[in-house]
Amino acid sequence: MLRLDNIALTVGDFSLHNIDFAVNEGEYFILLGPSGAGKSLILELISGFYKQQQGKVFLRQKEITNLPIQEREVGLLFQDFAIFPHLSVFDNIVYPLRNASLSKSGRLETVRQVAAELEVSHLLHRNPTTLSGGEQQRVALARTLVRKPAVLLLDEPLAALDVQLRGGIRSLLRRLNQKGQTILHVTHDFEEAAILGHRIAVVENNTIAQCGSHDEVFHHPRSSFIANFVGIRNFFAGELFENTDGIRNFRMNGVVISILSDQAAGKGFAVIRSEDIILSPEPFDSSAANNLKGLITSVEPARVGFEISIDAGIPLIAIVAKESVVRLGLEPGKTVWAGFKASAVKFVAA
Questions:
Q1: What burial class does residue 259 get, using C-beta atoms within 10 Å of its C-beta: 0-12 exposed, 13-18 middle, 19+ buried?
Q2: What three-state secondary structure class fits 225?
Q3: Do 247 and 144 belong together in one domain?
Q4: Using CA atoms, how far apart are residues 291 and 285, in angstroms rounded to an integer?
Q5: What would the pLDDT profile of 81-115 be if each residue is shown by its tens digit?
Q6: What angle do CA 317, 343, 296 make, to 5 degrees?
Q7: Residues 201 and 62 in one domain
Q8: Buried b / exposed e across 310-328, counting CB within 10 Å, b at 16+?
Q9: Residues 89, 184 share a domain
């Protein structure tokens, strides 16, 4: 669908090099990296705002490297929404269609369809300055989608929203993708990346350092930068449910753990901090609700202490002090019990 081939771009004193990745049709693809890494520049290059010094851009197997902005079948949603404050919501949404070969009734029907899908039909006659942040986000999305882009480019779409609004916009973006919209989403938030993305590309040292599923990126980072940036390595997709005793459980790859959560049952992600996992050669007799038996697969030095990888039906990673490694005799091939409290597990609904 969309492919960047060996892109090199210099803007002022900042340079990107060897930018190579491909987004499949219907995919939700994430560009993940810290602020200032050049992620937004990549979106602007795809849109035609910048011209690379090297490499090519392809869309639907057609090279678009030298095409002007208006001829590229992409829609870019800026982080600050860029809504025209002097125009009504309707006029904002219809604006990209001003030169389209559509009749007045055709433009009206297109706006109505997109407004209905984005749930802003009741706002069409409002002034954008009277809207909430979430409403402005939906209007900006509607304006971007009205020309039916082959790829929707999102530049930190949730960063400007309050925490309580982000869930609704995440659901909206997921629904758009499930209906077939290809999405390339830039973010610095690893949770956002894992929840939404089918695949993730990490930007490090002005290039693409790793590309893969969230399981590959979070559980098997290719560099210390990626491991440190991602931070939490125990990130699992599964389903939250309530058992007959009223206890919340989370099931992932056949493994069930207890979890302290008041969220509704359903699919989502469990997050366990490596520092919250305690290792023992024997089953725990403590308040830890979760005790998983596993086999140590590796022992590696970490920034603080040692990183212990355990195969417990799921790939757990614990951080322990050097003294504990010596005292417990932790080494590859040793059987251990991994314990952690139900309150140590964070559930993120999908």
A1: buried
A2: helix
A3: no
A4: 10
A5: 788 889 999 999 998 888 777 778 888 888 999 99
A6: 20
A7: yes
A8: bebebbbbbbbeeebbeee
A9: yes
Comparing CA positions, the residue from 346, 341, 247 lying closest to residue 288 is 341
Using DSSP, state whether 90 is helix, strand or coil: helix
Domain stops at, among 230, 255, 282: 230
Q: Which amino acid is at 77?
A: L
Q: Which residues pair with 96 in a beta bridge?
A: none
- Which residues pair with residue 136 across a beta bridge? none
pLDDT at 235: 82
Same domain, 225 and 240: no
DSSP β-ladder status, 315-320 and 248-252: unpaired
Neighbours of 81 (CB within 10 A): 20
Report the chain's mean pLDDT, rounded to a whole number: 88
Looking at the structure, do residues 116 and 223 belong to the same domain, yes or no?
yes
Instruction: For residue range 293-316, list pLDDT tens digits in order.
Output: 999 999 988 777 899 999 999 999
Structure tokens that stand for 318 in this block = 């614990």
For 76, list phi and psi in degrees, rounded to 5.
Answer: -105, 125
CA distance 292 to 341: 12
| Partners of residue 291 on adjacent β-strands | 339
Sign of CA dihedral 334, 339, 340, 346: positive
290-301 and 335-340 beta bridge pairing? antiparallel
Whole-angstrom Cα distance, residue 350 to residue 341? 22
- pLDDT of 219-249, one tens digit each? 777 776 776 676 667 888 899 998 776 678 9
Smallest CA-to-CA distance from 213 within 18, 29, 34 is with: 29
Q: How far is CA 160 from CA 107, 144, 350, in A?
A: 30, 17, 21
9 in Cβ contact with 41 (< 8 Å): yes
Amino acid (1-letter code) at residue 12: G
The two beta strands, 14-23 and 306-311, are: unpaired
Domain that residue 255 falls in: 234-349
